[in-house]
Specification:
It contains 1 helix and 12 strands, in the order αββββββββββββ. It has a 5-stranded antiparallel sheet with strand order 1-2-8-5-6, with no helix packed on it. Strands 3, 4, 7, 11 and 12 form a 5-stranded antiparallel sheet that branches. Strands 9-10 form a two-stranded antiparallel ribbon. The protein is α+β, with helices and mostly antiparallel strands and about 170 residues long. It has one domain: Immunoglobulin-like.
Length: about 170
Amino acid sequence: MPMRRRGISPVIATVILVAVAIAVAIAVAFWMTGIVGLFTGFEELQITSAYAETIDANNDGTEDTFVIHITVKNTGTSPATVDNVIINGQPFDNAIIQVSYGDSPNQINNQLGAGGSFSINPGETYYINITFDINANWAGGQLGHGVSVEVKLHTAGGKEYPKLVVLP
């Protein structure tokens, strides 16, 4: 009696091949999604508030100093490193710039004009206080009462985030 060899039917073979192809396609799709997620991080700072006030820094009864208060939040997916503050189109290096976050107002204290920088991680909110003399001259004019000042935060990634503030 001759021996009969039987294989799987063509329909079953087709179903197995299609199932394997779908499984491989799903695995490749998940792998590519992970790779794309690693390389598509972006920085995005959002200035949520900005205002200016005058204070008596010398305690002599006269208001002699401007303070610009800025609240900034990183709404992007990667850290943003602020490396400069630009006022009216020029880096402002004759001011005291204090940076803080969270509940501790003095956790970071930088002079950005002196080459300092700070990073804001995704989801974090930072508070920046820019303090300068009430009679300061900058960008070809005096920064006095009623003057509109454009404050830009410059990041190491080359982006600038502007906000217009009117000095009181």
